Amino acid sequence: MSFLELTDVTKFYGNTCAVSAMNLTVEKGEFVSLLGPSGCGKTTTLQMVAGFEAVTSGRITLDGRDITHAKANVRGLGIVFQSYALFAHMTVAGNVGFGLEMRKLPKTEQRERVAQALALVHLEQHASRYPRELSGGQRQRVALARALVIEPPVLLLDEPLSNLDAQLREEMQFELRQIQRRVGATTVMVTHDQSEAMSISDRVVVMEAGRAMQTGHPHRVYEHPETRFISTFVGKTNLLPGTVTASGARTHVALGPLAVQVDGPRFLPGTAVLLSLRPEKLHCVPAGRIDGQVRERFFLGSQWLYRVGTAVGDLMVLAPNDGRDALSEGERTGVDWPDHCMRLLPADETAGAEALP
Ligand SMILES: Nc1ncnc2c1ncn2[C@@H]1O[C@H](COP(=O)(O)OP(=O)(O)OP(=O)(O)O)[C@@H](O)[C@H]1O
Q: Residues in domain ABC transporter (predicted)?
């Protein structure tokens, strides 16, 4: 049995189904992110684990105990929610120590643990400040220290880095991961930022319309998305429409004038499919699988992004900036890619039954 388990957890608000038969297992010490677009049910899922929202049906267990209907305060979870503001009238140390005070721990132990928690988030020197005297990022770190100080079995984070500018956000992502590893807290984080989820999680759960669509290691989900939605929500991709012409050890697909053979899930001949090709897997070469012409180019610093017009449609190609001259707009180029980078997705996701086992 996993440390935290959600089994068929469903939430209705009136007639609105916010979360539908959600299944999730989180191992002790694991960092799992719920990733998905606005309104897909991420926060509602976290709120049900926290005990702030009632579960309509299904079951939640923590360390083997059924906590589906347990009150929030007896679950003892560490929570950093966007709306879970700091106490304005208390200092940073007061905010961080609040949970320990509630638990009536001896004063000396409280002081020690508050100092440790503040050191963890590098805010020792701000212990006597008030929240209004801190930056947004510092406030989020106080919220994190307040959650960590009670040494919770599970840490629940809802967009914990949302108030930070891009650079601080990136720094804090790594810091958060380090803190989480050091403390060993089992963590569930909600985010709509796919790069954030991928860079710090052991596993990501991609949600769409109240459902968990795919769960796995970030690299696995990125390289083997199971649906069109996941292939475009987690990273960027070129999607080329094609038709399956034959299915053997590999699937033969016709993409207009181009024929390819793809490993992976097999489809019946005649099935409409999409070939997913990640832009960074494509190369501009003098002679490739297909000829094209650079329509546009964008300089991204460490990379060039080319839009290359070809007979199978426009292809986005991401090339490392190796310091040499880039291709010019209007220039002719071939486009190539390795066989193992091709992924086939059903064009019509309701037609999954047509996929061969
Ligand atoms: N208290 C509520 N009453 C009615 N409907 C709600 C309530 N809270 C959420 N919903 C609905 O449930 C669905 C899921 O909302 P939720 O906040 O869980 O999504 P989310 O993925 O966290 O979105 P966001 O990234 O925008 O925060 C949405 O359709 C939302 O409108």
A: 4-234
HSE, side-chain direction, 13 A CA sphere, residue 54: 4
Report the CATH number at residue 65.
3.40.50.300
193 and 297, same domain (yes or no): no
Backbone angles phi, psi at 322, to 5 degrees: -95, 15
Q: Which helix (H) or strand (E) holds 39?
A: none
Same domain, residue pair 211 and 317? no
Q: Does 234 map to a domain?
A: no
Based on the fold, state whether residues 209 and 243 are members of the same structural domain: no
Domain count, the chain: 2
The residue nearest atom 13 of ligand 1, judged by CA position, is 18
10 Å CB burial of residue 193 (0-12, 13-18, 19+) is middle
**Ligand 1 centroid distance, CA of 13 (Å):** 9
Mean pLDDT of the chain: 91
| CA within 13 Å, CB half, 63 | 9
Q: Is the pLDDT of residue 203 over 70?
A: yes
Q: Provide the pLDDT for residue 272.
A: 94
Question: Cα–Cα distance between 244 and 268 in angstroms, integer?
Answer: 7
Give, in order, the Cα–Cα distances in Å from 245 to each of 68, 240, 254, 272, 313. 50, 15, 7, 10, 20
Nearest atom within ligand 1 for CA of residue 210: 14
> Distance between CA atoms of 114 and 227, rounded to whole angstroms?
46
Do 203 and 321 share a domain, yes or no? no
pLDDT band at 350 (very low <50, low <70, confident <90, very high): low
DSSP 8-state symbol, 300: -
The residue range of the domain holding 291 is: 239-356
Show which of 228, 247, 269 is a domain's final residue.
228
Q: Which residue has a Cα nearest atom 18 of ligand 1?
A: 41
Give the residue from 349, 344, 348, 355 showing the smallest Cα distance to 239.
344
Task: Specify the pTM.
Answer: 0.86
Q: Name the residue with the closest Cα to ligand 1, atom 29.
A: 39
Q: Which residue has the tokens 């309509």?
A: 56
